[in-house]
Write a structure and sequence with these properties.
The chain has a domain at 3-184 and 235-268 and 304-319: 3-Layer(aba) Sandwich (Rossmann fold), CATH 3.40.50. Helices cover 42% and strands 16% of the residues. It has 11 helices and 13 strands. Strands 3-2-1-4-5-6-11 form a 7-stranded parallel beta sheet, sandwiched between helices. The protein has a two-stranded parallel sheet with strand order 7-10. The longest helix is centred in the first third of the chain and has 22 residues, at 95-116. The protein binds uridine-5'-diphosphate-4-deoxy-4-fluoro-alpha-D-galactose (UFG). Residues 86, 88, 126-128, 152, 180, 199-201, 204, 216-219, 230, 232, 273, 296, 299 line the site of uridine-5'-diphosphate-4-deoxy-4-fluoro-alpha-D-galactose.
């Protein structure tokens, strides 16, 4: 059985990827410091797959602990690296923490890969590297624009570190640029667990509908889009997770065409904030309380992916539509409320 290290495997995308890996016959070891996730995720993964993944709790930004981990785990077949800070706004307040954590942990992992003669890493990147693209849909060849936040900058820098490492070290890397991952596993056992007030649209919608927040603020309706609200390429988290299984299989089975490859993970369709709200109202049968307010500083107007390269090269395609995404997000929010009610 091939053994895969999943860093950040108790997080939102990480946990869904662990499920898919296990269901495809991989053995998983998770490393996570649990700063933004919960240990109970391990039991919930086990409820879905019947297998509790191995787990170690430490900070990958700590060079000694990371080196020690790799010295003890020389039998890994590959790494999927999710562990990182991910809040755009917070990164503006704490730039140094973001650089130290996101860059430092990747460097420590790459050092560890040298120790283990381990060559394959899948990296969690983001469409944020494109900024506001000049042309839509945005392809992987689009120019990388100056970052709008330290968070986005760490994604750009990590991609560059991987590119140069793959050029001169025995390392192969696949960077997956996610568009807007939303939704939750159909079991409603794992999903997104935002700490405090959510920054992202969909958890804010479901928390408003369940009564945790009073009203959703729609940030701006004067964009150059059909209904004036900003547009994004929302993609179901399980579709994103499946792409990681394909990517790691491509590496392990030596099907990569270059030492570093980059793929967009999106659906190819843009939805406006109002369209997302309408989808939620359709699937939940509820009316959402929302009001239009000023634009959020730093937001881009519109972005959606060209999916041709991922579809052709990976043989992967996002399958779930916006209503399925919103249905699963709502089921997850209700399951969370039920669990809280039982406590
Ligand atoms: N929005 C609202 N109200 C809210 C929250 C969001 O109207 O309460 C709007 C935003 O203005 C934006 C859209 O909903 O137009 C999506 O916002 P999100 O915060 O959900 O997602 P972003 O596109 O801003 O950010 C996401 C990830 C980032 C990543 C970025 C890449 O959260 O990590 O995509 O573009 F960097």
């Amino acid at each position: 059985m091939k053994r895969i290290l999943v860093t950040g495997g108790t997080g939102f995308i990480g946990s869904h990827t662990v499920v898919e890996l296990q269901q495809h016959g991989y053995e998983v070891i998770i490393v996570d410091n649990l700063v933004n996730s919960s240990i109970e995720v391990l039991d919930n993964i086990a409820k879905i797959t019947g297998i509790k993944p191995s787990f170690e709790q430490f900070d990958l930004a700590d060079p000694a602990k990371t080196a020690d981990f790799f010295n003890r785990n020389k039998d890994l077949s590959g790494i999927i690296h999710f562990a990182a800070y991910k809040a755009v706004g917070e990164s503006m307040q704490k730039p140094l923490e973001y650089y130290r954590n996101n860059i430092g942990s990747l460097l420590n992992i790459l050092e560890g890969m040298k120790t283990c003669a381990l060559g394959d890493i899948v990296f969690s990147s983001s469409c944020t590297v494109y900024g506001q693209p000049d042309e839509l849909p945005v392809t992987e060849q689009a120019p990388i624009k100056p970052a709008w936040s330290p968070y986005g900058n760490t994604k750009q820098m990590c991609e560059e570190i991987l590119r140069f490492s793959a050029a001169s070290l025995p390392i192969k890397a696949i960077a997956l640029r996610y568009f807007n991952p939303i939704g939750a596993h159909e079991s409603a056992l794992i999903g997104e667990l935002p700490l405090g007030i959510p920054n992202n649209l969909v958890p804010y919608i479901t928390q408003t509908a369940i009564g945790l927040r009073q009203s959703l603020h729609v940030f701006g309706n004067d964009y150059d889009t059909p209904d004036g609200t900003a547009m994004r390429d929302y993609i179901h988290v399980v579709d994103i997770a499946r792409a990681h299984v394909v990517a790691i299989g491509r590496m392990i089975n030596k099907r990569m065409k270059h030492n570093m490859e980059i793929f967009n993970l999106g659906t190819g369709h843009g939805f406006s904030v109002l369209e997302v709200i309408q989808s939620f109202e359709r699937v939940s049968g509820l009316k959402l309380n929302y009001k239009i307010v000023d634009r959020r500083p730093g937001d881009i107007e519109k972005v959606w992916a060209s999916t041709d390269f991922a579809n052709k090269e990976l043989g992967w395609k996002a399958e779930k539509k916006i209503d399925e995404m919103m249905t699963s997000a709502w089921k997850w929010e209700k399951a969370l409320a039920d669990r809280k009610g039982q406590q």
